[in-house]
From TrEMBL:
Family, similarity comment: Belongs to the cytochrome P450 family.
Superkingdom: Bacteria
Gene3D superfamilies per record: Cytochrome P450
Organism of origin: Deinococcus oregonensis
Listed name of the protein: Cytochrome P450
Record-linked CDD domains: CYP107-like (cd11029)
Signal peptide boundaries: none
Hydrolase listed as a keyword: no
Transmembrane segments: none
Keyword hit for Metal-binding: yes
Keywords, comma-separated and alphabetical: Heme, Iron, Metal-binding, Monooxygenase, Oxidoreductase
């Protein structure tokens, strides 16, 4: 019922942070449709697919280092570095800047685990750097996502520098964190279901349905963005007054017995899997193809190259991040 819901009014952010209010998640209606049409012209399947080889290289390097040690924290040593490295390459960050770009983005994506005030200097530095890079790409376009965002046009309309910058932040936050949680929590789920782990190991072609099943099963994003009822309405027999908060719980929907056979069972070969892990409708996750690619390559490599993969601590000792929106582990110690 998208016409019956509206986005919550966003508090005015101070000065340089106002740009963060211009992203897809903060917009509805014509403003959202305009920006999404422009972004889709840049975020093409070709853009994603050409990252396959680079994603494979980054994945193999991270896993090889862990295998040499015989142990790893699969979050910090594997799930986190892969999307961090790939997003820098997709955006077109020059190789010489990769170390500091990685430092900045690690700080940005960990903002939920620390006092946000400590991250303000990093955010300002990062914004200034990205504005310079956007300006450079307007002057001399290259074969990267920033150049594509800058060049995207729809009926003579184009994205402003603020809109491009806001899109970059969205990719780093919503897109990046979802992938980290999918890889980390997905690996844990496979270890806790050794029959499914061995099934996937025996039949590598199952990796695509396996990743879809893990999105459904582990719920890397537990709920959708909050909305408010634009008018009094009835939904599934429930009266929702105008102005009432409405939140879609994706994790619950993905365990709905009316939609899934054996909803609480992990089935890496599940075929009827219309999950809502990447959302639905106008706010369907723009980065879903990239998240799928990264998770398929990462989990496939882990399953095939680490036959001795096991948890290094009892599952009860694992700590989950303190968030009611996303679901992810702080650490995942394993032996290889």
């Amino acid at each position: 019922m998208p016409q019956q819901l509206r986005k919550a009014p966003t508090a005015n952010l101070p000065g340089p942070f106002k740009v963060l209010q211009q992203g897809l998640l903060s917009l509805d209606g014509a403003d959202h449709d305009r920006l999404k049409a422009l972004v889709y012209k840049a975020f093409t399947p070709r853009t994603i697919e050409r990252m396959r080889d680079q994603t494979q290289v980054v994945t193999d390097e991270a896993l090889s280092a862990a295998l040499r040690r015989g142990e790893a924290d699969l979050i910090q040593d594997f799930a986190l570095p892969i999307p961090l490295a790939i997003i820098g390459r997709i955006l077109g960050v020059p190789g010489r800047d990769h170390p500091r770009f990685s430092t900045w983005t690690r700080a940005l994506v960990s903002i939920g685990d620390r006092n946000p005030l400590f991250v303000v200097p990093t955010i300002l530095t990062f914004m200034a750097y990205m504005r310079r890079l956007i300006k450079e790409r307007r002057a001399v376009p290259q074969d990267d996502l920033i150049s594509a965002l800058v060049a995207a046009q729809e009926n003579s309309d184009a994205m402003s520098d603020d809109e491009v910058l806001s899109m970059i932040f969205l990719l780093l936050s919503a897109g990046h964190e979802t992938t980290v949680n999918l890889i980390g929590s997905g690996a844990l789920a496979l270890m806790q279901h050794p029959d499914q782990l061995e099934r996937l190991r025996a039949d590598p072609k199952l990796i695509k349905p396996a990743v879809e099943e893990l999105v459904r099963f582990v719920a890397p994003v537990e709920q959708g963005t909050e909305r408010y009822a634009a008018r009094d309405t009835e939904w599934a027999g429930v009266h929702i007054p105008r102005g009432e908060l409405v939140i879609g719980i994706l994790a619950s929907a993905n365990r709905d017995p009316a939609q899934f056979d054996g909803p609480d069972q992990l089935d890496v070969g599940r075929t009827n899997n219309r999950h809502l892990g990447f959302g639905l409708g106008m706010h369907y996750c723009l980065g879903a193809p990239l998240a799928r690619l990264e998770a398929q390559l990462a989990l496939s490599a882990l399953v095939q190259r680490a036959p001795q993969l096991k948890l290094a601590v009892p599952a009860s000792d694992l700590t989950w991040r303190k968030s009611f929106i996303v679901r992810g582990l702080q650490r995942l110690p394993v032996t290889l």
